[in-house]
Amino acid sequence: MHRPALQSAPELPSAADVSRLLEQVRAIVESSADGLSEHALIKALREDPDCILPEGSLSDPVILYRVHFLVFHALYHLRDRYRESREANLFIGPLLICREAYENGEAGLAKNDSLRRFYLDLDNLEASREEIEDLLARANQFLVSDSERAEALRTLELDEHASREDIRRRFRELAMRHHPDRGGDGENFKRICAAMELLTEARAEGRRH
Q1: How far apart are CA 139 and CA 205, in angstroms?
Q2: Cα dist. 205→38, 200, 209 in Å?
Q3: From CA 70, how far away is CA 76, in angstroms rounded?
Q4: What is the pTM of this model?
Q5: How far, in Å, CA of 53 to CA of 67, rounded?
Q6: Vertex 113: Cα angle to 83 and 111 (nearest 5)
Q7: Least packed by Cβ within 10 Å: which of 61, 170, 173, 199?
């Protein structure tokens, strides 16, 4: 199937396209018992010839934004489906996406979820290149010092010898424990996510240099 070409004003996906993407995302998530990152999910989706995600390099901020938005659009739909059926809950984040056990009351958590509202509104897919580049410039790129890395490891309760798998496993444990949707402390959750993002950036910098 021909994937949509990148345009300055993208054509919004049809209901059939969204439904197909949702089923592709569901199959990958449910086959990943320990969860996976957004990057791994995108890679798996793009291996499917029927994938509706835009083609092109994710180094292009416009492609990155549109791919990210469509993936999260599908993930929030999937989480709603899980919660409505009480089949499961879905933890959604750039560094970790995983199914988890449903707990009573989670079906009502969507009401005040601003991220959910943003990603379920397909009109937000149409951000301009200027808007996207400004967003990424404000959210992005910093170099990681040794002291910052050490502090991030302390936040995850790890030492300097922690492996990539140790970091990933510990992040998952702490994120699940402190997620506000599960009654955790929002500020602790933010610190844990920031530490993981910093450590991820540190590894990326190490590969570039």
Answers
A1: 17
A2: 19, 9, 6
A3: 10
A4: 0.66
A5: 6
A6: 65
A7: 173
Strand partners, 30: none
How far apart are the C-alpha atoms of 9 and 60, rounded to whole Å? 15
Q: How far is residue 87's CA from residue 134's CA, in Å, rounded to a whole number?
A: 39
Residue ranges of E strands in 6-138: 89-92, 97-100
CB 111 within 8 A of CB 134: no
The three-state secondary structure class of 154 is helix
Closest CA to 195 of 148, 132, 160: 148
Tokens of 29: 């998530």
Residue 173 identity (one-letter amino acid): E
Of residues 57, 93, 95, the one with CA closest to residue 203: 95
- 94 is written with which tokens? 């750039």
* Residue 54 tokens, joined: 């835009």
pLDDT tens, N- to C-terminus, the chain (209 residues): 445 444 455 678 899 999 999 999 999 999 998 788 899 999 999 999 989 999 899 888 889 999 999 999 999 999 999 998 988 989 888 778 888 888 765 555 555 578 889 899 999 888 888 888 877 766 554 445 667 778 888 899 998 788 878 888 899 899 888 888 888 888 888 889 888 887 776 554 444 44
Amino acid at 110: A
